[in-house]
Every structure is written in C-alpha cells, then in structure tokens.
Amino acid sequence: ETGADLWLRYPKVPIPGRLAEYQAAFKRVVKSGTGASLDVAQAELVKGLSGLTGGAVETGAAVEGPGAVVIGTATSDAIKGLPLASRLGALGPEGYLVEAADVGGQPVIAVAGNTEVGVLYGTFALLRHVQSHSSLDKLSLTGSPKIGHRILNHWDNLDRSVERGYAGRSIWDWSALPGTISPRYKDYARANASIGINGTVLTNVNANAQVLTPSYLTKVKALADVFRPYGIKVYLTARFSAPVEIGNLSTADPTNSSVKQWWTNKVNEIYQQIPDFGGFLVKANSEGQPGPQDYGRTHADGANMLADALAPHDGIVIWRAFVYSDTSPPDRIKQAYEEFKPLDGKFKSNVLVQAKNGPLDFQPREPFHPLFGAMPKTPLALELQITKEYLGEDTHLAYLGPLYEEVLKADTYAAGEGSTVARVIDGTLHKYTTTAISGVANVGDDANWTGSQMNQANWYVFGRLAWNPDLSSEAIAEEWVRQTFSNDPVVVEPVVQIMMESRKALVDYMTPLGLVHIMGNDHHYGPGPWLNSLSRAEWNPVYYHKADANSIGFNRTSSGSNAVAQYAAQVGQKFGSRDTVPDDLLLFFHRVGWQDKAKSGRTVWEELVHRYSQGVDEVGVMRETWKSVEGRIDGKRFGDVSDFLQIQHYEARWWRDACLAYFGSVSKLQVPSGYAPLANTLSFYQGLRCPSDVKKPRCSQVYTGNPS
Ligand code: BDP
User: Fold this and answer.
1) Separation of 492 CA from ligand 1 center, angstroms?
2) Widest Cα–Cα separation across the chain
C-alpha cells in the first residue's frame, strides 16, 4: 500500500460475526431523490460497503427487501414520512441523522440530511462507523458542524511549488487545467468531505494576481465543478495590488472609485463562472505583501472594499492578522493585537479576521493568540498549520491533535471562565453570525498525499476538530488508526500511544520550556539557536531566547515588553507571574537565571538538559513501540514509518546536542552527570549545512549507533 487511499480504504471486515451482520444490512443503496451530491454519496456507499462486506453492493431505486441503505433529504419520498425527519430540522443545513428505520415494512438504515450535502456527511459517518467495525445494533449517528466555514488554505503557487510544502508539488496542475482533470481532484474532494471540510483556498497567501486573470479563472472553475458535489467551495487569495498588476490602474488605494469598480467587476466575473465561489483570503501589509497601509488606509478599509464587492454574492473576506514589521514594537508578537484590536467593530459583516493559533508563528508550542476574545464585534477565524513547517516537516512524527486541542481549550476569560478559544471561533461567545477555521494544507502530489504516512493524521484531525472543536484529539487519533491501519487492538493501542506522545516529544527535543523560533533560518528544519546574522532582528533566533551568561528567556511581563497585558487579566496574571506560569511556557514569558529553579526543583539549566534528553528518549520509545506493529500492518507503510522514525531519532539527538552545546557555551555550564555527553562540539553543529531539500541525506547522518 502506498497510503494513497488515506483513511478511505474499506478493506473487507475480518471478524466473521461482524461481517455477517454487515452483509445482511448492506445489500443495496437506495437513493431517494436526485442530485449530484446524492450521486456521489451513493457511489461512496457502494464502493465502501462493497469493500467492507467483500461483496457487490448494488444500487436500487426502491427498497425491495431487507438490507437497504436509504439515502435522501428530509423532503425526499423515502425520508419525509419517517419519524426521524422531524428531528432533522434542528440540525441545520449540513447536519445528518443515520438510524435504523422502517420503510414500506422493511428494516433499512436511513441516511438523512436537510440538504444533499448533509446526506453526504451522514454517508461518511456511516462508513466511519463500519470501518471501525462498530455494531449496527441501536445505530444512531448524528452530527452537525459547530463552525460554518471549515477551510483548507493551500500555500500553492501557480508554478506548482508549494510554500512550506513537504509532499511534492502542488496537486493543482495549472498547465493541464481546465482540459485535463486529474482523478486526484475527486479523491481530494472525497477525503475532505469525509471529514467535513467545506472550503479550499487554492492559492498561496503570498499571492499572485495572475490567478485572477480570465485564463486562470477558467481553470479555477474546472476545479470548483469537481468539488461542488462534495460540498466544497473554492476560494482564492487576492493580491491587494492586483488592480495595478493586472488591471492597468495606477493605484490599488481601497478608497479610489476606479479601484473599487475594478474589484466589483472582477468579483462579478468570478461569480459568472463560479456561482458558489467562497471569497477571498488576504495577506496584506505583512512580510512585504502589498496592502491598504501602502496608501495610508487601515486593514478595515482594505477588507471592507473587497467585502462590498463580494456581499451581493454572499462571498466572504478572510483577512489575516499575521502582521509584524521591522518597525514593530520591541516585541514582535504584540503587533497584531495593536493593529487589529482598535479596528473591532469597523469591519463589514462578511469579513472575518483570521489569526494564527499563537501570537508568534506556528511554533511547536506557544500560548494562544491574545486576539481571541479581544474582538467581540468581529468574527475571528482560527488559522492552524497542518503542514509541519516548524515541526519536522515531512519526516518527524508529530500528531498535531494535542496542539490543536490545547489552543481550542485555552481559556481566554474574555467573558469569564469558560470563554475558550473554541467558544470564540464557533461564535457562541460573542454571537458571531459567520464562523471559520482554516488549516494550512499539507497536501501535495506525493503518492501518500502528505509526505509521510503519519502526516495524513494531521489533515484528518484538522477536519474532525473543525467540525466539532470539542472532540478529543485522542478519540480522533483512534478513529484515524482504525480506518488507516487496523482495528486490531495490538495495532490501535500502540499507534495511538505514539501519536499522543509525539508532539510533546518534539517540543522536548526542539523547543522545551517555552523556547521558540530557534530553528535554522529559511528552512526552519534543524537547530540554529546561535543564528544572528539576518538583517531584521526578529528574524534571528537569538532575538527569541536572549540567552547570555546569566539568564535566558524573553521578558514579556510588566517589567519587560508587557505582552501579557494583551490577555484578559486572569490570563495575563497567570502568564506574568513566575509562580503561576507553566514551565512549558516559562522562557516565552520570563527571563530567568540559569540557576533559578524550575517547578521540578532542578535549576533552569538542568531542566533544559533534562527536557532535551527526555525528548530524545521519548522518540526512542516511539521507535520501539512502532516495532511492535511489524507484521500486523502492510510492510510498505510499516517500513515508511520505521525509516522516518529512525531519522527522527537521530535528528532529535542532533537538536539536543546542538542546542545544549550552544546554550552551554553561553552559560558556561556543563551537561550534568547522568545525561549523555554531547556527541560533538558547537562549531561542528554550526558548520553543518542543512540541505534545503530535506529529503536529501541529513545533517544527522553523522550519528552512528543508538542516538540515545
Ligand atoms: C511563516 C512562513 C511563511 C508564510 C508566513 C505566513 O514561514 O512562509 O508566508 O508564515 O503565514 O510561518 O504568511
């Protein structure tokens, strides 16, 4: 197996009793009503149930006997008379119910929704249930999404390179579109629909205006046509200077009437081709991107101008809050709040402001972004990174469910206790009428889609949490393993255990104790805490840890940058006090002496050594644990994961030794006895050059033997 089937593998059920139960229940799929989404739901059930039962499940026009799955909307002939139809109303346009029912005196399984797409979501819920070998007795599956727009953000360029992509080239083959439609587009849509994703931004936030030209819009339309039956809307990134670059105007000033007219015309042109176009995602005045500030206007001026053009078509603007500049305050992380908080209430109703999970930049661990809870009048969208830019890219196994869960459950205290980030973004806290969550996609044209077998889980968990941010990441991990590898407990338990420990292990060997952004410049892959040569201070790792002979850490308390004041009082006090700040975020908020004590009783230096060492050991345990599934899953995927775990183990040691060599050189402290000595000198690590294509031989190949 290459992994190409993702979690939609549908292998024959190996347990005789369960197989018999399924074979009796799944003889044919009866579609009540017509429509493109019903067609794909029926096709998916036929494919899935045929595979799982090992027989040919048929399609049928009517329930002719026992063993039918009946799919339809609430108003369809087969569903409308059923008792469950009355309960559908409360579930909204995308909700579903899957239950045993009686149609024409025959026991059936009904898959019902208020819309066809709801039926499709019910279809995938049933297939998930069956792929997990669960009983059909008292079957009752119900769901409706808590967040309205659940969107992948592709950072894909028109030349098929992918910014921060580690899974090959872009899956959008622009030169072959619209004439050639790769079968992958449909499988991409199936995979997304199966986890409830209902939107995709096709292009990079560092945008290229060309995608808005007529020839590209025809290609975009072709993709939208493939995705539509799966309930997936297409969005594009809008380059703010497009009116100048492709429109021959001399300005892109959002208050200029020609500029407004240009965007209105452009949006109308898009909707002519794509009537359900989702809208624009915009990165403006950030990292060199053009924006309204170039003309002395605000983010709200820029966003509202686009919002006006989109509003007649029900399109939305997702305006990113990822801003920092070299003129920013002495603490980069404060800028987004300072720029956006004063604009609360100034955005049109079809604008969302999208903030990354943390105030810095997708680090292995950072606190939640202080904008969450701070903009009650502006719907905030949460941006998570699925592609692992700072977390070991394709190779390192880091299941991001716990990271996502950590931010969703973080309490902003915006309206007292329980004001979690999840309640902010699902709109319940501030009564947002529009809600969204985005994940920066990790999908490419690699056979396994995501650059590694295990990275598929991060796509999966993003979708499942976007649907319901209250699900547990552990339960989702189990779901994924059951569908992707095996239902055998001797596989499920160890693999879930590896996944659940993996992100903590990575934080331990890369950025323990609240360290951040100490990766090598540009590639962000290997360690580079010593780096200090880039032109802008906040691009350099030394800016973030500020280690010297006496101390380490960034003082963000009231005696420092006072970034803690951007949080609600309870949160700011907790982070700002040395007594209450969790050690996991210690150096993010505090500057401490090397000999100060961590909560463990160890000194800060000893704690750093301890955590770095523990991280390497944890990967060793993950590796050993993985060995236990050998022979219980297919050899190809077993081998893929084993190979990457070996690389990860070596590279964890590289991270540990390089970071401790550097911090030890600054603090003049030695690795205490009882811990492995450093394998090489600091200058050795500083001399390593990490290849820009990290699939090439690793810097860490210098290690031999057991990395522990
Ligand atoms: C940073 C990435 C950069 C992105 C930027 C962003 O390194 O490639 O363009 O985020 O989110 O983390 O705009």
Assistant:
1) 35
2) 82
